[in-house]
Write a structure and sequence with these properties.
- This protein is α/β, with parallel strands linked by helices and 256 residues long.
- The chain has a 9-stranded mixed β-sheet with strand order 3-2-1-4-5-6-10-8-11, sandwiched between helices. The protein has a two-stranded parallel ribbon with strand order 7-9.
- Helix 1 packs across helix 8 and helix 4 crosses helix 5.
- It is globular, with a radius of gyration of 18 Å.
């Protein structure tokens, strides 16, 4: 069974649908069961495979998370920030992702459980192995960190996962490039961003979801390749050189 956080979001809904399509059992935490059902109404065996818990994640403590993760061998987080009319996050949402990562990983009882987190390519890998950013990009990141709540939250969540080590839970944090709507298509995993924050490429939300599901179900032994890492997920443009499987070995790309 997989616990999906952010299940009614733009990416999370795809994750739930794809897992259900594969006959996988899914547990979700949602503010509205009705909204969740509308998003998956065409899926089969919803009654037996989808468990819905109606709650606000920001109100849950460690004990509540222990119940959420009980019986689940994987946790997928597609959490994002809800902005009000002025583009600001509510007080309870400012550390939404970080708090969820901390509580969920602390609640896990087995080191073999998987924790899969969705982030963005604007978040540098805390291991320091990303290529250095240009000076102007470092300036942009500095402003984002102190002016845009979601970016600071995502950075803190990444640091927490990195600092967990390998004796708490197995984890992977996906960093898609510029997110767009669209269907599942060919995509690739990269060990680090090829370019800077802007103009690096695009990734459909459906492809992000497909990558998360692929990791969750360990299709093609993908989990062993990317656990404890923060790969970039990127669409492969039809006819591009990236569509060929001739990348440098140290890129560790995996095309789907």
């Amino acid at each position: 069974k997989t616990l999906v956080l952010g299940a009614t979001g733009a990416t999370g809904k795809h994750v739930v649908r794809m897992l259900l399509e594969r006959g996988h059992k899914v547990r979700v935490v949602v503010r509205s069961k009705e909204r969740m059902l509308k998003l998956v109404e065409e899926q089969q065996n919803i009654e037996s495979n989808l468990e819905m818990i109606e709650s606000d994640l920001t109100s849950l403590n460690g004990k509540a998370y222990e119940k959420l993760v009980e019986g689940c061998d994987a946790i997928v987080s597609c959490l994002g920030h809800t902005l009000n009319g002025r583009g600001l996050c509510g007080l309870n949402d400012r550390r939404l992702v970080t708090n969820a990562v901390k509580l969920a990983t602390a609640a896990v009882k087995s080191t073999k459980n998987k924790f899969i987190l969705m982030k963005s390519n604007g978040v540098a890998n805390p291991n320091g192995q990303d290529d250095p950013r240009a000076v102007w990009e470092r300036g942009v990141v500095f402003l984002l960190r102190y002016l845009i709540t979601p970016h600071a939250d995502n950075e803190q969540a990444a640091k927490h996962l990195h600092n967990l080590g390998k004796d708490v839970v197995e984890w992977c944090a996906l960093r898609p490039n510029d997110l767009i709507d669209g269907e599942v298509s060919k995509y690739t995993f990269l060990s680090k961003p090829k370019k800077g924050m802007f103009g690096a490429g695009q990734t459909t939300r459906a492809n992000v979801a497909a990558a998360m599901v692929q990791l969750c179900l360990d299709e093609d032994n993908l989990w062993q390749t990317w656990k404890f890492k923060m790969p970039v997920v990127e669409n492969i443009a039809e006819g591009s050189s990236e569509a060929k499987e001739d990348e440098d070995e140290d890129e560790q790309e995996h095309a789907v």
